[in-house]
Amino acid sequence: MDRTSAVFLDRDGVLNRTAVREGVPHPPTCADDVEILPGVREALKELSAVGIPLVVVTNQPDVARGTQTRDAVEQINARLSRELPLTAILTCFHDAPDNCGCRKPKPGLLYQAAAAYNIDLARSFLVGDRWSDIAAGQAAGCRTFLVERPYSGADRCAPDRPVADLAEAARIILRLVRERT
C-alpha cells in the first residue's frame, strides 16, 4: 500500500483564534469560546476534496500546568472535529520540563500520525504559527509553512514558506500536490 502525503496543522492560531495577552497566545478556555478563523473551513474543504489527510498536532501544556483541564481540551478538539473535515487531532498534554517526545518542537506527534495513517512525511506539509511547529515539521522531513503572527518567533526558524494564513498555505499546497500528479 502506497503511503500518502498529509497536511499537519497546528490548532490554536492556525485553525482557531487565540487570545494574545502580553504578547503570548492563549488557547480558548472551552468549546464555546472556539472561533474558527476566516477562510479555514474553505481551505480545509479544498484540501480534503483531493484526498489529503488533515491531521492536527497541538501542544496543550496548560493541562500539565494545572490551568486547563484535559476534558476542556478534548471538548475543544471534538468541536473542531465536528465542524472541520479533519482526519485526526493528536494532542501533547505535557509541558517543556516533562521533556517528552510528543511536545513540539520534537516531531513525536507527526511520527505517531505517520504510523497510524500510513503517511509519507517527506511528501507532507506542516502549517503552524510558531517556531516550534516549524522545527517539528522540519525534524520530521515535512515542507513547512509559518503563519506569521507577532508571537511566531520567526527569528528562531526558517520555514519553507511564510504565509499570511491557512488559506494561502492551502493554495500553495494544492498547487504542489497537483504538480506531483
TL;DR?
The protein contains six helices and eight strands, in the order E-E-E-H-E-H-H-E-H-E-H-E-E-H.
Explain what this protein looks like in three dimensions.
The protein is α/β, with parallel strands linked by helices and 181 residues long. It has one domain (7-180): Rossmann fold. The chain has six helices and eight strands; from the N terminus they run βββαβααβαβαββα. Helix 1 (40-49) runs parallel beside helix 6. The radius of gyration is 15 Å and the shape is globular. The model has no long low-confidence stretch (mean pLDDT 96).
Topology, element by element:
Elements: E1 7-9, E2 19-21, E3 24-26, H1 40-49, E4 54-59, H2 62-65, H3 70-83, E5 88-92, H4 108-117, E6 125-128, H5 131-140, E7 143-147, E8 161-163, H6 166-180
Parallel strand pairs: 1-4, 1-6, 4-5, 6-7, 7-8
Antiparallel strand pairs: 2-3
Helix pairs in contact: 1-6
Features:
181 residues; alpha/beta; Rossmann fold; two-stranded antiparallel ribbon; 6 helices
What's the number of structural domains? 1
Query: What are the low-pLDDT stretches, counting only 5+ consecutive residues below 50?
Result: none
Helix amount: 25-40%
Strand composition percent: 15-25%
CATH homologous superfamily classification: HAD superfamily/HAD-like
Gap from first CA to last CA = 17 Å
The CATH architecture term is: 3-Layer(aba) Sandwich
Major beta-sheet overview: 6 strands, parallel
Number of helices: 6
How do the helices and strands follow one another from N- to C-terminus?
Answer: EEEHEHHEHEHEEH
SS-based structural class? alpha/beta
Radius of gyration, in Å, reads 15 Å
Name the strands of the widest sheet in spatial order: 5-4-1-6-7-8
How many beta-strand runs? 8
**CATH class wording:** Alpha Beta
Shape: globular
According to CATH, what is the topology?
Rossmann fold
Average pLDDT, rounded to a whole number, is 96
